Amino acid sequence: GDSVTQMEGPVTLSEEAFLTINCTYTATGYPSLFWYVQYPGEGLQLLLKATKADDKGSNKGFEATYRKETTSFHLEKGSVQVSDSAVYFCALIPQMDTGRRALTFGSGTRLQVQP
Amino acid sequence: DTEVTQTPKHLVMGMTNKKSLKCEQHMGHRAMYWYKQKAKKPPELMFVYSYEKLSINESVPSRFSPECPNSSLLNLHLHALQPEDSALYLCASSQFRGGQTNYGYTFGSGTRLTVV
User: Fold this and answer.
1) Nearest-CA neighbor of A97 among A51, A64, A58, A43?
2) Could you tell me if A88 and A21 are in contact, meaning their C-beta atoms sit under 8 angstroms apart?
3) For A2-59, how does the pLDDT look when each residue is reduced to its tens digit (9 = 90+)?
4) Nearest to A34 by CA among A98, A94, A111
5) By three-state DSSP, how is residue A63 classified?
6) Chain B: nearest CA to A7, how far in angstroms?
7) Which residues on chain B are in Cβ contact (under 8 Å) with A97?
8) Residue A97: phi, psi to the nearest 5?
9) Does A40 touch chain B (CB under 8 A)?
10) How far away is chain B from the Cα of A60, in angstroms, using its nearest Cα?
């Protein structure tokens, strides 16, 4: 079945450090890929998405590129801020969705940014 | 309006109580979802409604009963819950395009449920 694997957390960085959170997936064809962010005590917010190979999603300084050859969708940010502290979820929707139309999530990666 | 609104934000209920969670969106999305999220875990799918009809039930116990009275509203009726049902319950909606849902979901902020 389809699955998403994320790097274990927590990831602890100093402010202005470079961030990478790794995400790889298993799915047939070309799934749509997403990054969601969850701040403490809140629901999930869509951070960025990519729907075909080599697409780059970007938002709020975060970027991720859909790499079909490595089945990856790594999240990056050049300079993190304390306000970026949150849990980040990588997720996919299969290309050949049989009506389930449901997101498959990775386990989540907690990011802690220290001043 | 680009939001999914969930009420209440917090709910404490006893194991013999009956309560309902409510979810509302006015984005014209025709797919709506209930997810359950335990602490430090990703959300788990419970139910999917497509065009106001239940299309997916992920083997959820019958003490959880979903309802979609119209295209903007989604309810989750709760009865005889157990303490292990305590979690964050998230509602979400999405749009279809050509039969594919590849535009992502919009999630509500959730209802934090505690069963005592």
Assistant:
1) A51
2) yes
3) 899 998 889 999 999 999 999 999 998 888 899 999 998 889 999 999 988 999 999 9
4) A94
5) strand
6) 14
7) 100-101
8) -80, 120
9) no
10) 17
For B41, the token pair is 């875990």
Give exposure, B55-68, as e/b (b: 16+ Cβ within 10 Å): ebeeebeeebebeb
Which amino acid would we find at residue A40?
Answer: P
Which of helix, strand or coil describes residue B33? strand
Cα A77 from Cα A19, distance rounded (Å) = 5
CA distance A35 to A108: 10
Task: Report the distance separating Cα A29 and Cα B49, nearest Å.
Answer: 25
Q: Is the peptide bond before A31 cis (omega within 30 degrees of 0)?
A: no
Q: pLDDT 10s per residue in chain B (116 long)? A: 679 999 999 999 999 999 999 999 999 888 899 999 999 899 999 999 988 999 888 889 999 999 999 999 999 999 999 999 999 999 999 886 554 555 668 999 999 999 99
Q: Which of A111, A113, A98, A114 is nearest to A36 (CA)?
A: A111
Q: Work out whether the CA dihedral B63, B12, B41, B3 comes out positive or negative.
A: positive
Please tell me what DSSP assigns to residue A82.
Answer: G
Q: Chains A, B: CB contacts under 8 A, how many?
A: 66
